[in-house]
Write a structure and sequence with these properties.
14 helices, Aspartate Aminotransferase, domain 2, 12 strands, 2 domains, alpha/beta, single chain, about 400 residues, binds pyridoxal-5'-phosphate
Length: about 400
Amino acid sequence: MKEKTRLVHPPRVSPPDDNPPLVAPLYQSVKFEHDTVADTLRALRGEREGFFYSRSANPTTRQLEQTLAAMQGREDAIVCGSGVGAIAQALLGLLKAGDHVLCFVETYAPTRTLIRRTLARYGVRHTMLSIEDDAGIERVLKGTPTALVIFESPTNPAMRIADIGHITRLARAAGALTLLDNTLAGLHQHGDTDVDLFLHSLTKYASGHGDVMGGAIIGSTALIRRLRPEFILMGGVLDPHAAWLIQRGLKTYLLRYEAQCATAMRVAQFLEAHEQVERVHYPGLARHSRHELAARQMRHFGTVVSFDLRAGAAAGDRLADALKLFAIAASMGSPESLIIPPGLMGPYDLPPELNALSGIAPGTVRLSMGLEDADDLIEDLAQALEVAVAADLT
Ligand SMILES: *Cc1c(COP(=O)(O)O)cnc(C)c1O
């Protein structure tokens, strides 16, 4: 072979079968070959194992799919390029014109927009309630034929808790599918419920380091088999390198999540006792309106703590400016602690009567715990609260 040819066809090095790498390799390859046309056709027909093209399947993303399904206590998963990609994919894959969706005011804003604008354009109708409106949920599911219930628990940022058993019982009886965006609760929670499909933004706790985006749809073999063909057509795949980073992040997932929850509890208790704080939104506090339900449904209460300042929205923004350890940044589940102050909480895209149900006050502040020492974070909050409120007095 001449030089150019040799460069394109380098030698292959595979360890022997009894000498595997401890960390799974990254298959950064779009294509996989078979020796013969006949073998290729057999693989494409699913008559033999094998990979062909990474938009359909790749060993690295497949490993992540299997890891996530096992963590969530379901059979299979589809990984996508982002959490929102997973939500859009699930909605488009499950719904058709004329279908009715039950969704909630407290839901992640892009999910609401997908339902209210994009799906509406395709003739999908919806009803939007508060996640705490148990009677309304019963009324809708008993009175209106419904294809899908999409919800979250805890909600972001109000940290409200859905009564998952109530929703799944009524949905099952009505023949509606349930889709739980379980991002805030995490991959190790709610698997023991009767939820049909789970959604996750892997950008948060799964990756855990704030350096990669991804999303997942997790459910039974039958439901994932139903969704996969259109997923392959729409093409929002996760790159193998991103999948490999997320797989790496998952090794410390539980340790990080537990540590961040422990910090969240301490921060929530500190804020609850602070005279400038009107209200703390954290399901781990006994005063939370659904603390007992949360304690029954959850192993951990979450890493996000929201609170309302007595001094209002401007003080919340000053608090963010005065904090040294909490970065003013989107998202959660990073090693760094983060804050979304009132000035960045919107924009509100809902009519005022729905907005009023959302549980977000003008002065609501959202904190997401990182991996710093809890003592340092509390000290930082104490000094910043003093600065934020002192400005009001001058
Ligand atoms: C962040 C988030 C998403 C979106 O995930 P991306 O990876 O940012 O696209 C969806 N749902 C919830 C609850 C989230 O917090």
